[in-house]
Amino acid sequence: MRLREVELQRLSIPFKGSFGHAASMRSATEPVLVTLHDEQGRRGVGEALPRDYVTGETLQTVIERDGPALARELLASALPTMDAVVAWLREAVSRWDHALSAFGAFELALLDLAGQRHGVALVDLLGGVQSPELPAGMVIGFEVATAKLERHCAALRFGKRRHIKVKIGAADDAQRLAIIARVLGPLPLRLDANAAWTADEAVARLGALAAVPGLAIASVEQPVGKHDLAGLRRIRTELGLRVMADESVCSFADAERLVAAQAVDVFNVRLGKMGGALATARICEFARRAGIGASLGTMVGETGVLGRASELLGRALAPTAGFDCLDGKGQNAFLLTEDILEPDADADVHAPGLGVRVSDDRVRAHAVEHHSFRD
């Protein structure tokens, strides 16, 4: 297989409302859509959603630096078989660990295109369907005002939602968690601070939150900065809480460092920050062997392209990785005023590649920047 053209398109899709946590508040999403075209007219798609505070990438680094470099490298490569594609991806990801969002978008696009060409579904490449669809994990962010929390949580309880993550890092965390615990009962909650505190602050704040009446804490996600492994370990040992890494675990090397430091109990795995499906699967297997749990999530504002890939990875790896839900599942569809997939695109799980159909009209409607690279 030789590529004929690579397209990079920056999109801007408004949210119906807003979504916020300690590190960011958003009212729109700006993904970069990567489209690979082969010499037979097929095309594969992938999606980058760069976050500077997660992987160190920005829209500019994807569009102006890493996207063009990856495009040139792939245009110069001959990948005649599916095995050759997988081998190239496994070798290249370590060279691109400074640009995992961009690389992950190219990885998904390449697996989509090669999968169509060779009749290989992404889920089968990852080991086949091993699990039914994962239930949705709901996320309560700061966009839900404290005054509206009781009604919001009552709706979650009525909908029998059992997997709840709560964003923390605000001045009224204790009040908010007391409301949530009162309405949802003894349901263990995953708390996510998005690196809001120093280690000293985290120990003090989390110690106080642990005393909120009726609150059951399942885990605390990224309470300190991504490089503060000693702080993560301190929270585990001093407070006895299960600590989950998010921003701290993007690359395989990150995973190795966290395990060596005995810093965390769980990895938050998301395709959009880890270099794609194959790299995420490798980290999950490493975590399993090291006795580390794994929680599967989505990027806020991702379109159906990344969403579909996350769903397929979850169905392939849930039993071995220990996924109990897919955080954010369905919430992005609710957030976006419009997805870029065709509205009737409900492909079979074994459809070749990703099994998605992107709407050219919707992409054009939301495109704000376009770059094309040719062989």
Q: Percent of residues in helical segments?
A: 40-55%
Largest sheet, strands/sense/barrel: 8 strands, parallel, barrel
How many domains?
2
**Quick one: how many beta strands?**
14
Overall pLDDT, averaged? 95
Query: How large is the radius of gyration?
Result: 20 Å
Can you write the helix and strand succession as a string? EEEEEHHHHHEHEHEHEHEHEHHEHEHHE
CATH architecture of the largest domain: Alpha-Beta Barrel
Topology:
Layout lengths: L2 E9 L1 E9 L2 E6 L2 E7 L4 E6 L3 H4 L3 H17 L6 H14 L4 H19 L3 H4 L10 E5 L8 H10 L5 E4 L5 H12 L4 E4 L6 H11 L7 E5 L7 H11 L3 E3 L6 H9 L5 E4 L1 H4 L2 H14 L2 E5 L6 H18 L4 E2 L3 H5 L24 H7 E8 L1
Parallel strand pairs: 6-7, 6-13, 7-8, 8-9, 9-10, 10-11, 11-12, 12-13
Antiparallel strand pairs: 1-4, 1-14, 2-3, 4-5
Can you walk me through this structure?
This protein has about 375 residues and is of the alpha/beta class. The protein folds into two domains: about 5-125 and about 355-375, Enolase-like, domain 1; about 125-335, Enolase-like C-terminal domain (TIM Barrel, Alpha-Beta Barrel). It is about 40% helix and about 20% strand. The protein contains 15 helices and 14 strands. The chain has helices spanning about 50-55, 60-75, 80-95, 100-120, 120-125, 150-160, 175-185, 200-210, 230-240, 250-260, 270-275, 275-290, 305-320, 330-335, 360-365; strands spanning about 5-10, 15-20, 25-30, 30-40, 45-50, 135-140, 165, 190, 215-220, 245, 265-270, 295, 325, 365-375. The strands form three sheets. An eight-stranded parallel β-barrel has the order 6-7-8-9-10-11-12-13. Helix 7 (about 175-185) links the parallel strand 7 (about 165) and strand 8. The longest helix is centred in the first third of the chain and has 19 residues, at about 100-120. It is globular.
